[in-house]
Specification:
- Helix content is 48%, strand content 25%.
- By secondary structure, the protein is an alpha/beta fold.
- The protein has a single domain, classed as YqgF/RNase H-like domain (Nucleotidyltransferase, domain 5, 2-Layer Sandwich), CATH 3.30.420.140.
- The chain has a five-stranded mixed beta sheet, with helices on both faces.
- Helix 1 crosses helix 2 and helix 3 packs across helix 4.
- The longest helix has 24 residues.
- The model has no long low-confidence stretch (mean pLDDT 88).
Length: 137
């Protein structure tokens, strides 16, 4: 059995989530605080090997009107590089509002300040991955 890795890619931090073996639930795995894209790619490839992943799902930041802006273009380029390096399929998944939803979840749990900043990307990765898995199951 294999897993799916969910990724909330960002310029300074990248949230990472992993599916269970049945592909039903997503769990937060890590928030990588790294700006060097090569290091992020290497870290994700290591995680894919460790968890015997079959694919990546990368959150795709579209504008609210559905258009793709600068962040979306950078994310698309990142996804292409990840696919080349990992030799695994990489799917882009609409992530509109996941970061704000993650902030809301953490606010409701009374997580504040620095702790929220560290957790929001991982929670967003969970939401991206869970949304994707719900659509295919």
């Amino acid at each position: 059995m294999t897993r799916i890795i969910g990724v909330d890619f960002g310029e300074a931090r990248t949230g990472i989530a992993v599916s269970d073996l049945l592909g039903i639930t997503a769990q937060g795995l890590d928030t990588l605080q790294e700006k060097d894209m090569a290091k992020v790619l290497n870290h994700l490839c290591d995680i894919a090997k460790e968890y015997n992943a079959r694919e990546f799902v990368v959150g795709f930041p579209k504008n609210m009107n559905g258009t793709v802006g600068e962040r979306g273009e950078r994310t698309s380029e990142f996804a292409k590089l990840l696919e080349e390096k990992s030799k695994l399929p990489v799917k882009l998944w609409d992530e509109r509002l996941t970061s704000s939803a993650a902030h809301n979840v953490l606010a409701e749990a009374n997580v504040s300040g620095k702790n929220r900043k560290l957790a929001v990307d991982k929670i967003a990765a969970v939401m991206i991955l869970q949304s994707y898995m719900s659509s295919i199951n």
